[in-house]
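The instructor's notes for this session suggest beginning with a concrete chain rather than abstract definitions. Hand out the sequence below and ask the class to guess, before any prediction is shown, which regions might be ordered.
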Amino acid sequence: MSVESVSAQGFAEQSLDVLRHVTESAREDVRRAAELIADCIRADGVIHAFGTGHSQAMVLEVAGRAGGLVPTNRLQISDLVLYGGDDPSVLDDPLLERQPGVAVRLYDLAAPHPRDLFVIISNSGVNSVIVEMALHARQQGHKILAITSLTHTAAVPAGHVSRKKLVDLADVVLDNAAPVGDALLSLPGGGAVGALSTLTGVMLVQMAVAEASGLLLATGERPPVYVSANVPGGFEGNLELEKRYAGRVRRTAS
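After discussion, reveal the predicted structure:
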């Protein structure tokens, strides 16, 4: 890669090429993901989204946003403090997500119903807490939709004692097509700049939600979606929709 390609235009051109590839190559997997989502909604289930680090950006795309589905719940490491009563100092540990038992505690705090769906997002797909969440959710009988980089996960060893990776545990996998290390533009002498997984991950999430909504409409069901709280009546309308899932979804300040 030339030095000249390390630029705004270089990133725009290359990332758009990948986005075009993803939208074409992932069609069948997006359809399968949409079927999981639609089946969950029809069964009065809730979609629990979990990720750590920058994967939380895609979690926010799944759970609690305008134009998104109402029966969605965001799981995060800070739930240990917000809902589990832990001292906030536990979040100072940069290796917290590698500690065994963390994912099981987060699962228990969310108290999912058996019919609920788990969307688990990780670029590498090997972090201990990610794999532990997938393992535990699968053991409890939940379907799992994974969003990950197949290229990255194939290039790194498993980080969980089970030696499993997220892709080994998912019912459907959406490949975000990010390179190893996520960044797109190589730098002279090593390293790279321009992370890709958020762009492609958001595209995959929104494609799956749109497709699931179409499946619901095709069978005469109205998708339960949020309206922006910043339009007249939006906040009040959203509260009405949330009543159906009272006690099962969390909406805290971000």
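Then share the key points. The mean pLDDT is 94. The chain has ten helices and seven strands.
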